[in-house]
Specification:
- By secondary structure, this protein is of the alpha+beta class.
- The C terminus is likely disordered.
- The radius of gyration is 22 Å and the shape is elongated.
- It has a five-stranded mixed sheet.
């Protein structure tokens, strides 16, 4: 039993370190996308403007192929910026859990154009970094699912303390779905949220049924574990 307990503690320390390192890597990739391919696409759009201007001067400004190219470039640039923004999370190390919740909801409302009510009564003043990272990512994914699959109807966010864990809930009043069925494409984010929670020793619960909306509930540990860094 002592050996198992020791192995469990080592696993949690490694998981906390891995979570933080993964977040740093996501932030780096997001910055690379923003500063690299996104800038190249933006430059291509500017050069295309110049080409279209010259064609208009010569009386050939109604080229449909150029319009298609412009549309494809604009779409690619928009997708690239969205991916980069999703990879780069805000600075979380010094942020309080309440600030993280507000940031996740504000980002969601800006992207989806739908409102969400927030209840953070009883939320603790602090949490381990790995827990704060998981909180932000799980809230972001759950809110995104509520907008896509729940049609943004009656979205509510509640985060509070439950014993030695942080309890985060995202619910909606959308059409819901049968949780017993194999996840369709687009519901794969649920597996990612569950993995984030369980990696830290927490758990993720899902409640949904046809016509009754959906509720995602995550329990994330609040007890600090020492880093497994050398």
């Amino acid at each position: 039993l002592d050996q198992n307990a020791g192995l469990h503690d080592r696993l949690r320390r490694a998981a906390a370190r891995t979570t933080a390192l993964n977040e740093l890597e996501r932030r780096r990739i997001g910055s690379d996308l923003h500063d690299g391919p996104s800038q190249t696409l933006a430059f291509a759009m500017l050069r295309l403007d110049a080409v279209e201007g010259r064609l208009e001067e010569s009386g050939h400004g109604d080229d449909k192929d150029l319009g298609s190219v412009r549309g494809a470039l604009a779409e690619a640039l928009g997708e690239m910026r969205t991916i980069a923004a999703g990879l780069r999370a805000p600075e979380l190390e010094r942020a309080k859990p309440a600030d993280i919740v507000k940031r996740a909801v504000a980002d969601h409302e800006r992207r989806a154009g739908t409102r969400a009510t927030v209840d953070i009564r009883g939320i603790p003043a602090g949490a381990p970094l790995a827990t704060k990272i998981a909180l932000y990512r799980i809230l972001s994914e759950a809110l995104s699912n509520a907008a896509r699959h729940g049609q943004g109807a009656g979205v509510e966010v509640r985060v509070t303390r439950s014993g030695d864990a942080l309890l985060a809930e995202v619910s909606d009043k959308g059409p819901g779905f049968d949780v017993g069925r194999r996840p369709r494409r687009g519901h794969l984010g649920l597996a990612g949220m569950r993995e984030r929670a369980e990696l830290l020793g927490g758990r993720l619960e899902l409640e949904s049924s046809s016509g009754a909306g959906t509720r995602v509930r995550a329990l994330l540990p609040l007890n600090e574990v020492e880093s497994d860094a050398p």
